[in-house]
Amino acid sequence: MAPLTTLLTLFPALIAAHGHVSGIVADGKWYTGWNAAMRYQNPVPVTAAWQVDNLDNGFVTPSGFQGADIVCHKSSKNGGAYVPVKAGSKVTFQWDAWPVSHKGPIIDYIAPCPGNDCTTASATSLLFTKFAEGAWKSGSDPGNWVTDDFVKNNISWTTTIPSDLAPGNYVVRHEIIALHAAGQTNGAQSYPQCINFKVEGEGKTVLSGGVKATAFYKAADPGILFNLYSKFSGYTIPGPALVKLARREERGHARQWAE
C-alpha cells in the first residue's frame, strides 16, 4: 500500500476540486468528519460521519440516483460513533472546500435507525424525512443561491435539529446538489454526506412515512435537469416534500415550520 503522503500527492487537483464535511459542530463542540484519506491510517479513526470511498471528492450523477451511492456517497460504510446533540440545537457542517461556481440546493434529511443502532443500519433501507432546505434566492444566469451564502460563511452550513424530535439515534443526510453542468442530461452533481446523531431531550415526535434515498430523485426532475445559465424566475427544489417538524427558522439558510 502506498504511503498516505504519496496518495495525496497523486490527487492534488482532484482533492481541491470539490469538498467534503471535515467536521461537525453540535452544542458548541467539534467532531471530526470523514476524509477518505483516513482509510490509510492505522488504526482507521472511528467517526460519527459515514466512511466513503471518495478520495477525489467526487460526486454522484443522476445515472446513480437509484443506486446505493446516492444515500451516503460512494461505497459508504456506517459511522461507528455518534454526535450527541439536544433536540432544538443548531448543528453546523463545516466543509473543507467548495467552488463558488457550484451553485445549487442544500438539503437536510433525517432518518431513525432500525433497532436504534445506526452503526449497523443498511443505508438503502433508511427512511428519510426532509426537514430543511434552501436553494435559489434571486436573479438568474446564474442568480443568487444559498451556496453563495454557504461559501461566504466559511464554507459552512447551519441547520437545526427539530425541537420536538423524540430521543434516539438518527442518521442525518446533508447534501449539496451542484447545478453548474445540470443543463445537460446526467450533468447534476450530488454530494451527500451522512452523520450519526444521538438526539437527546424530551421530544415526542416519532418519525414515520419517510422515503428511501434511492427514490428521492429522477434524472429528468425539474430541479435536477436545470439550465443554471439561462433566464429563469424560479427553481423547484428536488426530492420529497419538506416536512413541518419544528417551529424554527434558520436565518439565511434552511427553512423549517411548525406542524
List keywords for this structure.
11 strands; 9% helix; mainly beta; Coagulation Factor XIII, Chain A, domain 1; 4-stranded antiparallel β-sheet; 25% strand; 5-stranded mixed β-sheet; 259 residues; disordered C terminus
Detailed description of the structure:
The protein is mainly β and 259 residues long. The chain has a single domain (18-215), classed as Distorted Sandwich (Coagulation Factor XIII, Chain A, domain 1). Helices cover 9% and strands 25% of the residues. It is built from 4 helices and 11 strands; from the N terminus they run H-H-E-E-H-E-E-E-E-E-E-H-E-E-E. The protein has helices spanning 4-10, 12-17, 69-72, 146-152; strands at 21-26, 29-32, 83-86, 90-95, 106-112, 129-134, 136-138, 144-145, 156-160, 168-178, 189-200. It is globular and about 45 Å long. The model is unreliable at 1-16 and 247-259 (pLDDT under 50).
